[in-house]
Amino acid sequence: MDTRTPHGFNRTELLRRMGRVRGALVSRHWHARILQVVIGLWLALSTVVWRHSPPQRVASIVGGLLIAATAILAGFFDRLRALVGLAGIWTVIATLTMPASVGTVVNTVYSVVVVLGLCMLPWSEERLVRQFGEERRLYG
Fold first, then answer.
1. pTM (2 decimals)?
2. How far apart are CA 121 and CA 57, in angstroms?
3. What is the predicted pLDDT for the residue at 127?
4. Residue 70, C-beta contacts closer than 8 angstroms, at least 6 positions apart
5. pLDDT value, residue 69
6. Using the 8-state DSSP alphabet, how is residue 124 labeled?
7. What is the 3-state secondary structure (H, E, C) of the chain?
8. Distance (Å, rounded) from C-alpha 67 to C-alpha 92?
9. pLDDT tens sequence for the chain (140 residues)
10. With contact defined as beta carbons under 8 Å apart, do 90 and 65 qualify?
11. What is the DSSP letter of 121?
């Protein structure tokens, strides 16, 4: 089956020529990684928006930057998606175990729920092409 990109290129051949790192960037879920980076940066910058206790401020900054950094790496290496989830879980645990305002807890929990949901997106078809060397449809 000859699947072509919007520009008329054969996807399989295109990914073979692009190589491993650039092929990973052609993922169907690149928007998920970008959203995870934005949410991580938001968690780090939210310490400026409303008051955090000093330990909570450090936990939010570290957790947010950790989510953003691992999301960037997960854009290149799909298997690192689990690290984004672990960073999110650590951030929630840190928020729930330290003194924090209701707004901080709600912001962190909702943000991390979105991050965890994005971690669970299936592999894209392009990555299956690169892994198996031929096109296979995800469902069928």
1. 0.69
2. 30
3. 52
4. 80, 83, 84, 87
5. 95
6. P
7. CCCECCCCCEHHHHHHHHCHHHHHCCCCCHHHHHHHHHHHHHHHHHHHHCCCCHHHHHHHHHHHHHHHHHHHHHHHCHHHHHHHHHHHHHHHHHHHHCCCCHHHHHHHHHHHHHHHHHHCCCCCHHHHHHHHCCCCCCCC
8. 12
9. 556 666 666 666 666 555 544 444 445 567 888 999 999 999 999 998 888 888 899 999 999 999 999 999 888 777 788 899 999 999 999 999 998 888 888 999 999 999 999 888 765 555 555 555 555 555 55
10. no
11. P
Residues 119, 60: Cα–Cα separation, whole Å: 20
DSSP state of 101: -
- The distance of Cα 90 from the centroid of its chain, to the nearest Å, equals 15
Contact predicate 103/47, CB 8 Å:
no
